[in-house]
Amino acid sequence: MFYSGSKLYLLIGINVFVFLAISVLSIFEQLVFRTTIVDTFSKEYLSLPAYLPKLAVRFWTPLTYMFMHAGVFHVLFNMLWLYSIGQIFEDYLGTKRTLGVYLLGGLSGAVLFLAIYNIFPLFNQSGALLVTSVVGASAAVMAVIAGAATIAPDHTIMLFGVVSIRLKWIALFYVAMGFLGITGANAGGEIAHLGGALFGFTYVRQLQNGRDMIAFIANIFKRKTKLKVASTNRDKPSSGTPRQEEVDHILDKISTTGYDNLSKQEKETLFRASKK
After folding, report:
1. Same structural domain, 181 and 251
2. Structurally, how many domains does the chain consist of?
3. What's the CATH code of the domain at 84?
4. Cα–Cα distances in angstroms (integers) from residue 227 to residues 4, 107, 224, 230, 274, in the given order
5. Is the same domain home to 208 and 231?
6. Going by DSSP bridges, is the β-strand pair 156-159/163-166 parallel, antiparallel, or unpaired?
7. One domain, residues 171 and 236
8. Which domain holds residue 265?
9. Would 126 be classed as within a structural domain?
10. pLDDT, tens digit only, all 276 positions of the chain
11. Is the pTM of this model over 0.90?
């Protein structure tokens, strides 16, 4: 979790730890004391309420709700999607943006959930507004999925190890299902999914235009170094001139994801090309 260099494993670890901690305490409490205080407390103080006056005294819930889950399968499928699609996201955009996209995707889902529940009569005039709350990492995970599908729409994965499918169709499927479900039993969750997906798509499109909306979050976790940039590949030095195709590929990657996301080998290749 902490030494892999990937925030993906850290996020998965936090989600699993929170779920197990609450579940184990709840099971122990019910077995021994026959009460449900842990479940009641976690729902009351860690889930995101739709009712704004309640949110005002639970102001931390837009953050905590995205690390909470309603059951084993809820956390299992969210983490499986985060793991599989998150690796693709990091392959194209580096490891420094995962945490920011996850957090801001979850917050975007919370904002859209609160806005729709407090604006539309279906919710605010039916009593649902007063009793509805939402939990789950789905909005944050959808931001990662939408971001990966935007940067690499034609990237193909094997769904369930059987069906070959492109990322863009997975993202569009979940967006469509979310929209069709906003008046259903899990309306709050579906609305949050749409908010997360919208952020993931918007973020990557802005990044492609040269604007990084979450650079400040990446910089918080950026390791400081006093070393100067130089070619110091002592393992296998090379003095040959790189092919133009290699250089063009690296320059395209810089324009999309930035110089910091180049591998050591790519930086070495670019250095040698600059001496030509």
Report:
1. no
2. 2
3. 1.20.1540.10
4. 22, 36, 9, 9, 20
5. no
6. antiparallel
7. no
8. 227-274
9. yes
10. 767 667 899 999 999 999 999 999 999 999 999 999 999 999 999 999 999 999 999 999 999 999 999 999 999 999 999 999 999 999 888 888 899 999 999 999 999 999 999 999 999 888 889 999 999 999 999 999 999 999 999 999 887 778 889 999 999 999 999 999 999 989 999 999 999 999 999 999 998 888 888 876 656 555 554 445 444 444 444 446 677 667 767 776 776 666 666 777 777 777 677 665
11. no
Q: Which amino acid is at 266?
A: E
